[in-house]
Amino acid sequence: MGTILQFVVLGLGLGAIYIGLGTGLLLVHRATGIINFAQGAMAMWGAFVFAQLRLDGTLVFPIGSVELARRPPVAVAALIGLAMAFLLGLLVHYVIFRPVRHAPVLAQVVVSVAVMITLQALVVLRFGPNNIDVASLIPEDSFPLLGAEIPTRELWMAAIMVLLAAAVWAYLRFTRAGVATRAASENERAAVLMGFSPDRLAAVAQVVAIMLGTVAVMLGSSLTGLNADNYTLLVVPALAVLLVARMESIAIVVVAALLMGAFQSLINLLITKPFWPQWAQSGLDQVVPFAVVMVILFVQGKRLPSRGSLQTIRLPDVSIPRFRPIPAVIMLVVGVAALSFTEGTWRFGITTSIIVMLLALSYVVLTGYLGQISLAQGAFAGAAGFCLSKASVNWGIPFPISLILCALVATALGMLVALPAFRIRGAQLAIVTIAAALAIERFVFNNYTLSPPEGNPIADATLFGLNLGVREGRDLSRIAFSLMVLVIAAVLVWAFLRVASGDTGRAFLAVRANERAAASSGIDVRRTKLIGFAISAFIAGIAGCLIGFSRGQLSAESFSVFAGLQVLAVAYLGGITSVGGAIVAGILGPLGIVYTLLRGVFDLGDYYLLISGLGLIITALLNPVGIAGATREQVAWVRRKLSRSGPPPSAVPEAPAPKEPSRV
């Protein structure tokens, strides 16, 4: 019993971090209506500044740094870290979140994901990718209870964060500004009539949220150290806590956060027991947030509150695509020429761009046409890729049967994740899918009983005795493999155009526009969503298998949550509502043509993630339709201008003289 109590108390330290992040998420949502997926990334910046000051006395800025004469005291370093968090909160609000407060949910989700990607990349560049050990702000002590040593540090951490959450509750409950913030969450006109600016209230909420999260990360970093990837993704269990509280109650956030942390700690105790199965010893604690999210959304579903606003902006327009043989042949010829006249790294970059284009196409199907926001496409691709390793090496299934079977595995997984979409959509569905992606990554891809640490080898593809492998001898990018990828991509794009231009595509667009209106017109909304998820996951699965063939061996890093978010970034950047946007996304995608150019010519490969994150922010703010969409709009504008302007006056024939009326 004492050991169980000890692990429960240890879990309160993790719960304290969830309190800070979850309360911040709730406060920002009440003030702006935005679910900030970057909450963890924003909170860790000030904590990293604090840790670096305590480590060697260096004050790190996004650009440049200052080496202090000596390390500042703990209190001074903490205040500097909080000041940096304060400035970051103001910057993010006024430059990024303020312009999208009344934008569609898709734009809000994409912007917050872009901030997450940008800050995570910036932290890695400025502080390094390795774990930073942080000295505890609270003295480490313990006391005996029930035969076990109960730590006091975690108890103090939980108490501090509970008090700070209570202060936020008091602000919302007893101050005029807090009451106005609550009123604005239902109707912004109410806040305006009270004499408050909803924009200023939102700025205050953003700053308080990031500083609260920064305090939580400062306290919690002494438990596990600071790591950019881990603390960025701690937002996922915090989102689960937010949903348990129905995005309304700070008290429930506090209780759910502490219970979540304690339960995850108990799981870490249980997996050490002899009776616990070996296959379930890795990543099970990350399955808990996903399970909580699924249960809450199924139980509460459409009863979750939504925020009132003064304005709604439509999603980017989608045009019904048509298959044009001549442009298609031209593009194929250009692709074959590009692959034939390049070699080595450049050919591999072009091939990777074609594969990333398919992943982006899966976003076009699901998000652009069906209106469902998924952050789990990378997980679908990874499931197919890891399945391909088993199918090609262990089971001996030949190509292309193995390719199709593994893509169908991804399809089944996509249809499973689609079940919550029957009741929810928008940011809530994004929460489900990112929780699913993290659970799959930690429980499946990082599970050494399912995915050995030495990697997952994949046999080369062969067809009728023809070797389609990517490497042979000193040739690291064979033309046969690249042409195979091009042919598969062309077939999938053609199939998508047929589906999108038919009745299924029109059903997708009807559901995207208005689910109730679609249902009233006879469209089976659930069936349509299931078909959309299935098609999208199948395309992502094919892309995952092609990634496996191109690498020859897969690891968990190949399909991490961040890898999937990078593809979402370039998909939105290219234009998430068209095949042209997917093609642009492939060119811009990770390890693609632009990455090869940045790395090989400009030596900026390490800055690729930061550049893509900043590009996504700018695109979401200034050009929601993406590069391809903007190009299409410009072409349409030129055509309208040309059609309106007739031939020059000299070329206009004279009108015939009117005939005199005939006389009887």
From TrEMBL:
<feature type="transmembrane region" description="Helical">
    <location>
        <begin position="6"/>
        <end position="27"/>
    </location>
</feature>
<feature type="transmembrane region" description="Helical">
    <location>
        <begin position="109"/>
        <end position="127"/>
    </location>
</feature>
<feature type="transmembrane region" description="Helical">
    <location>
        <begin position="530"/>
        <end position="549"/>
    </location>
</feature>
<dbReference type="InterPro" id="IPR043428">
    <property type="entry name" value="LivM-like"/>
</dbReference>
<protein>
    <submittedName>
        <fullName>ABC transporter permease</fullName>
    </submittedName>
</protein>
<keyword id="KW-0812">Transmembrane</keyword>
<comment type="similarity">
    <text>Belongs to the binding-protein-dependent transport system permease family. LivHM subfamily.</text>
</comment>
<dbReference type="InterPro" id="IPR052157">
    <property type="entry name" value="BCAA_transport_permease"/>
</dbReference>
<feature type="region of interest" description="Disordered">
    <location>
        <begin position="642"/>
        <end position="664"/>
    </location>
</feature>
<keyword id="KW-0029">Amino-acid transport</keyword>
<feature type="transmembrane region" description="Helical">
    <location>
        <begin position="228"/>
        <end position="245"/>
    </location>
</feature>
<dbReference type="Pfam" id="PF02653">
    <property type="entry name" value="BPD_transp_2"/>
</dbReference>
<keyword id="KW-1003">Cell membrane</keyword>
<feature type="transmembrane region" description="Helical">
    <location>
        <begin position="34"/>
        <end position="55"/>
    </location>
</feature>
<feature type="transmembrane region" description="Helical">
    <location>
        <begin position="399"/>
        <end position="419"/>
    </location>
</feature>
<keyword id="KW-0813">Transport</keyword>
<feature type="transmembrane region" description="Helical">
    <location>
        <begin position="322"/>
        <end position="342"/>
    </location>
</feature>
<dbReference type="InterPro" id="IPR001851">
    <property type="entry name" value="ABC_transp_permease"/>
</dbReference>
<feature type="transmembrane region" description="Helical">
    <location>
        <begin position="348"/>
        <end position="366"/>
    </location>
</feature>
<feature type="transmembrane region" description="Helical">
    <location>
        <begin position="426"/>
        <end position="445"/>
    </location>
</feature>
<feature type="transmembrane region" description="Helical">
    <location>
        <begin position="155"/>
        <end position="172"/>
    </location>
</feature>
<feature type="transmembrane region" description="Helical">
    <location>
        <begin position="252"/>
        <end position="271"/>
    </location>
</feature>
<keyword id="KW-0472">Membrane</keyword>
<feature type="transmembrane region" description="Helical">
    <location>
        <begin position="479"/>
        <end position="497"/>
    </location>
</feature>
<feature type="transmembrane region" description="Helical">
    <location>
        <begin position="75"/>
        <end position="97"/>
    </location>
</feature>
<feature type="transmembrane region" description="Helical">
    <location>
        <begin position="569"/>
        <end position="595"/>
    </location>
</feature>
<keyword id="KW-1133">Transmembrane helix</keyword>
<feature type="transmembrane region" description="Helical">
    <location>
        <begin position="283"/>
        <end position="301"/>
    </location>
</feature>
<feature type="transmembrane region" description="Helical">
    <location>
        <begin position="607"/>
        <end position="630"/>
    </location>
</feature>
<feature type="compositionally biased region" description="Pro residues">
    <location>
        <begin position="646"/>
        <end position="664"/>
    </location>
</feature>
<feature type="transmembrane region" description="Helical">
    <location>
        <begin position="201"/>
        <end position="222"/>
    </location>
</feature>
